[in-house]
């Protein structure tokens, strides 16, 4: 998956803004070391300095890490796939906002998280829950199917109960798990939904001609208008899962 870091900073800054609430689940302790997994352009990695002086940001996208390094020079940022993290017993906290649903195979991912955490270390994360953006996904899928085009976008949006077992299988003990609706206004007025779709359905959209893309956006907007347009902005049907778990 390619990420356009400039576009993300300008149009999707809300992702990190919502993530600030998750910071309250991270204890303050100057001696602890924190990993921000899927750190993107580094907004929350930088904010985590309020909790500890030792913070590392990790992301598989070279574009995102380049932007993070430009915005926060001197901080420790690494380009790495989270499933291939090389450390062992290295971090007190693994923090992650809005990243885990992009990563397939949470068995492998959580084994890696468990390995990099110190004993008693904690995972603090929030990402898309079961039924997240269901209406938007269905509208997109329908528009593709109408043209006999494949819908290949895959996210992992688990329910809390299911995710509890996945954590336990990786040796992580769930402490708190919460699923909740979080209707999310999208920036850009009438263009908000298509701006958002350009990033989130990027892989399927990349294969299409510009005119096809525009027709698909129009069909999505027509079918979602009654439910997700509030008169001045699009409000996406986000559902989140917030988890703390201990090694
Ligand atoms: C929606 S962004 C969230 C960025 C940031 N946490 C925030 O709150 O703004 C999701 C990030 O997850 C990263 N990501 C996706 N798969 C990954 C993987 N396997 N390993 C590490 N990072 C990954 C993407 O590159 C992207 O920067």
UniProtKB/TrEMBL annotation:
PANTHER family: TRANS-ACONITATE 2-METHYLTRANSFERASE, TRANS-ACONITATE 2-METHYLTRANSFERASE-RELATED
Organism: Akkermansia muciniphila (strain ATCC BAA-835 / DSM 22959 / JCM 33894 / BCRC 81048 / CCUG 64013 / CIP 107961 / Muc)
Keyword Transmembrane (UniProt): no
Gene Ontology MF annotations: S-adenosylmethionine-dependent methyltransferase activity
One record GO biological process: methylation
Protein name: Methyltransferase type 11
InterPro entries, A to Z: Methyltransf_11, SAM-dependent_MTases_sf
The keyword Cell cycle is assigned to this record: no
Keywords: Methyltransferase, Transferase
Recorded superkingdom: Bacteria
Domain Methyltransferase type: 35-125
């Amino acid at each position: 998956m390619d990420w356009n870091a400039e576009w993300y900073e300008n149009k999707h800054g809300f992702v990190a803004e919502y993530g600030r609430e998750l910071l309250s689940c991270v204890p303050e302790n100057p001696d602890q070391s924190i990993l921000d997994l899927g750190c993107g352009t580094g907004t929350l990695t930088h904010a985590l300095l309020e909790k500890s002086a030792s913070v590392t940001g990790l992301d598989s996208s070279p574009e995102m890490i380049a932007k993070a390094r430009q915005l926060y020079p001197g901080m420790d940022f690494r380009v790495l796939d989270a499933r291939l993290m090389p450390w062992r017993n290295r971090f007190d906290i693994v923090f992650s906002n809005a990243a885990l649903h992009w990563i397939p195979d949470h068995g492998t991912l959580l084994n890696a998280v468990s390995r990099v955490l110190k004993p008693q270390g904690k995972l603090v994360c929030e990402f898309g829950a079961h039924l997240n953006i269901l209406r938007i996904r269905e509208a997109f899928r329908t528009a593709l199917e109408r043209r006999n085009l494949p819908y290949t976008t895959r996210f992992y949006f688990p329910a809390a109960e299911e995710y509890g077992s996945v954590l336990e299988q990786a040796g992580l003990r769930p402490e708190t798990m919460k699923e909740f609706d979080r209707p999310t206004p999208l920036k850009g007025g009438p263009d908000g939904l298509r701006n958002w779709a350009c990033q989130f359905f990027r892989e399927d959209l990349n294969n299409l001609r510009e005119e096809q893309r525009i027709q698909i956006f129009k069909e999505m907007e027509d079918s979602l208008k009654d439910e997700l347009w509030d008169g001045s902005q699009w409000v996406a049907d986000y559902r989140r899962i917030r988890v703390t778990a201990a090694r």
